[in-house]
Amino acid sequence: MYVGVDVGGTYTDAVLLSNGVVGATAKIPTKSSLLESVLGALDIVLKDVDSGKLKRIVFSTTMITNLIAGKKYDKVALLLLPGPGMNLRYFDFHTDVRLLSGAIDYRGREIIPLDEKEISGVLSGLEEKGYSRVGIIGKFSPRNSSHEKRVAEIVMGKYPGWQVELGFQAGPQLNFPRRVVTTFLTCATREPYNDFVNSVREALKKREIKADVFILKADAGTLPLASSVELPVETIFSGPAASTLGVEALTPEGITEVAVDIGGTTTDIALILDGKPLLSARGARVDGQLTQVRTLAVRSVPIGGDSVLELVGEKVAFRPERFGPAYCMGGPVPTPTDALRVLGLTSHGDEGRAREAMEKLGAPLGLGAGEIAEMVTSIAVSNITADIKKMFREWEQEPAYRIWELIHKKKIKPSVVVGVGGGAEGFIGRIAEELGCEPVTPPHAEVANAIGAAVARPTLQMSLRADTEQGYYIFREDGLQEKISGQLFNEQKALELARGRLLEKAASYGLEVTAEEIEITHQEVFNMIRGWSTVGRLYDLTVQTPGGVATRIEVGGK
Q: What contacts 408, CB < 8 A, 6 or more positions away?
């Protein structure tokens, strides 16, 4: 038996799966106490169930996404060591940035020493401005992290209570600007994410649940809950990944479809190409900036069933926030759900209150409840479909899509739009109509995120860095360092070592994986030149066991 739990900003959903059949579902309002929300959902789906028979629990959450979208985190300063030759004037990291002296070159050699007096002065200035969280990022710190570590020692020596994040840990790949953004987000979200993890642990402890526990990542892979605290930003698009896997598990194999998850405050869009979710080649984009977080090719539209509606002049505006449930369900303000209720496109809530909400919204424009409800619904559908059409164009630029196009010698246009989430019932028919597609609302659509979490295949990764000049290689996850033996060491040998180590780790977790299934998620080779000769090479690569759905939901399941 498997359990999936999706902790959203509006609702916490849970499902119990047994042999591909949905045994129980839960959907409860997310409370201010995450512990209560998790316990409440678990108690519903595990009623009369022997928790000792649970094999795995997978959590997904929009918590990190919501924190970042609403900038609901303590401020973070950035201490950067870009070295010579990099102009940061073209980058806006949306916070206070201090440039420090000191530089490491691409080979990992110190070429400019740190100025510790300068560092101390910069820290005093940040303290005066109220900062207590800092990210420290060097341009080539993945090659040599000594400068970042030394700056961190100075920070902790001067201000032991400050939170410090290092770039080489938060973003181990090269690409300095993306590593800066990734480190910033890690620093901003670590504390609230730790609170989330502690709530989950406490809930499992209270119910004496001993199953393996994972968190869903943005790329639809998983991390053991204990490991996820080191990389909270990996869960930034956990919610959209869950809904995408849920759609994959709830629909026939091998088809191409658009997954549209209409939640309380956002609508998440993803493409499933020939039965496989499409990955983004560029990584997660947050607030217009790219990160080093591997993710599915998803987009979030700031429109949901509980979005706040207001008039701006003579136009209806959707505010990207939620004040509570829809007016028809006891909430304080008009929402799109009220419009759907008036039009008979949903059965949720009280029709009388929905009509009252629409009458209040439409009165200044001289519009009745039905007229303003139609206007609200049309605007919402138009905005969502416009973003889907934009995503079509972006999807066509993804390498995975282009490879598919070359193999099949044709462009693909999805013919099916699958709606899940609380708002799918009312919106998906009209969205599909505007796109010229067939609308599908599968069974258990309202808890598709939790189903996606439950069916997610556990994944593991292994990162190797080899330096042929120094004669060693190291596995980052294990901290295991070995000497390079023999004269011939090349890219293929590095991959064989990484794959072999990952297969050993997978076997220890009981995962059945073959070497052919292992994915290469990152791969770089750099020549080290001295004089006119190549004296060695640096190999950096990361491999991962395949993600996706571990099981599909049987049609007609309970």
A: none
**Cβ burial 93-111 (10 Å sphere, 16+ → b, else e):** beeebbebebbbeebbeee
b/e burial code for range 348-364 (CB count within 10 A of at least 16 → b): bbeeebbbbbbbbbbee
Question: Does the pLDDT of residue 478 top 80, yes or no?
Answer: no
State pTM to two decimals. Answer: 0.87
- Pick the closest to residue 467 from 107, 199, 135, 117 (CA basis): 107
Asked if 309 and 389 touch (Cβ cutoff 8 Å), the reply is no
Could you please report the per-residue DSSP string of 252-302? -TT--EEEEEE-SS-EEEEEEETTEEPBPSS--EETTEE-S---BSEEEES
Q: Is 47 helix (H, G, I), strand (E, B) or coil?
A: coil
- The predicted model gives 176-189 an average pLDDT of 93
Q: Which of 253, 328, 280 has the alpha carbon at shortest distance from 554?
A: 253
DSSP state of 388: H
Rounded Cα distance between 403 and 399, Å, is 6
Close Cβ partners of 471 (under 8 Å, ≥ 6 residues apart):
483, 484
Strands, DSSP E only, in 19-62?
21-29, 56-61
pLDDT at 90: 67
